[in-house]
Design brief:
It is a single chain. By secondary structure, this protein is α/β, with parallel strands linked by helices. It folds into two domains: about 110 residues, Enolase-like, N-terminal domain (Enolase-like, domain 1, 2-Layer Sandwich); about 190 residues, Alpha-Beta Barrel (TIM Barrel), CATH 3.20.20.120. Helices cover about 35% and strands about 20% of the residues. It contains eleven helices and eleven strands. The strands form two sheets. It has a seven-stranded parallel beta sheet. The two termini are about 30 Å apart. Bound molecules: magnesium ion (MG). The site of magnesium ion (MG) has 6 residues, from loops. The site of magnesium ion has 6 residues, from loops.
């Protein structure tokens, strides 16, 4: 079977920049891709969407190697040599092309409590205050994600104290130092937070390579791995705690789909700031996650997502307009 391969480059500025302890993200680049089967005119869309800008060059080089028209078997052979983000986009498009993935446009997460809100670290107290005043008619808690390791340690600990004094059962917290704490700081925060009902998890509290430290911290408090899974993907089969899973950064998101279909626990779905095309599989997987044994709202960074046609839930429309 011959496949027609098309690609379009995209660039957008986030509606709100994201600052973490390592870097600031203000824009995003990548490619949306379209595969067409010449026999029955079936179509599959995918997105190559590296989270880290330093991976753009490697993805560009790999995408340039794919001919416009090729045998499906040839593509399947080539795919394994590509950057994980290129593999992710191609595998998603192939799965849609062969009917393994059928997207449901009704899987939307547009209500405020349906996705974790990525807070602005400067104004987190104000944000918490606003969300605590939400109407009584909304019974679901609001999940807030707080990026730490940005300011000095003392002032962040004081802020933590203020946050814990302020929140009630309407707020859930995810705290993410993006791997920049040392064991001493992580242990101190774990001691403060270990009996706090509102905490979902500490996300990547220690460096991605400090698995011994992460394992021992996990005995005290829920620890979610994020950067560790990107650097050491084999941990997906080993880590029994929470896993922040980013479909666009994994070689084959269909494996994650199968894990969720098989009711694997402790998988939380996260965006890497994709367009509406990449968002389709994220929504699909997040919807499945919520039906699993450990439901948790996904991290979709909706506040940071621009409101243009590039983020529509209609893949054809995004393709035509770009
Ligand atoms: Mg994270």
């Amino acid at each position: 079977m011959k496949i027609l391969f098309k690609k379009k480059y995209f660039f957008f500025r986030l509606a709100k920049s994201v600052t973490n302890s390592r870097k600031q993200l203000i824009s995003k680049k990548g490619w949306i891709i379209k595969l067409e089967n010449n026999e029955d005119n079936k179509i599959g869309f995918g997105e190559v969407s590296p989270l880290y800008p330093e991976n753009i060059k490697a993805c560009e080089k790999d995408i340039a190697l794919i001919p416009d028209y090729l045998e499906r078997s040839e593509l399947l052979k080539q795919i394994k040599k590509f950057h994980p983000c290129v593999q992710s986009g191609l595998n998603t498009a192939l799965a849609e092309l062969n009917g393994e993935l059928v997207f449901d446009r009704e899987h939307r997460f547009d209500k405020i409590y349906q996705s974790a809100i990525l807070c602005d670290s400067e104004n987190i107290l104000d944000e918490i205050y606003i969300h605590m005043k939400k109407p009584i008619s909304i019974s679901e808690p609001i999940t807030l994600k707080w990026k730490v390791g940005i300011k000095d340690r003392k002032s962040e600990e004081l802020l933590l104290e203020e946050i814990l004094n302020l929140i009630n059962e309407k707020i859930r917290l995810r705290i993410d130092p993006n791997g920049t704490w040392n064991r001493e700081v992580a242990t101190r925060w774990a001691d403060i937070l270990k009996d706090i009902y509102n905490l979902d998890w500490l996300e990547q509290p220690l460096s991605e390579d400090d698995l011994e430290g992460l394992n021992s911290l996990q005995k005290k408090i829920p620890v979610a791995l994020d950067e560790s899974l990107l650097k050491h993907p084999h941990l997906i089969n080993k880590w029994n705690g929470w896993q922040i899973r980013r479909p666009s950064q994994e070689k084959n998101p269909i494996k994650l789909l199968k894990e969720l279909e098989n009711k694997k626990a402790y998988r939380a779905i996260s965006t890497s700031f994709e367009t509406g095309i990449g968002r389709r599989i994220i929504n699909q997987l997040a919807f499945l996650q919520l039906k699993g044994p450990t439901p948790k709202v996904p991290g979709l960074a909706l506040k940071q997502t621009p409101k243009t046609s590039l983020f529509s839930n209609n893949a054809e429309l995004i393709w035509d307009k770009l």
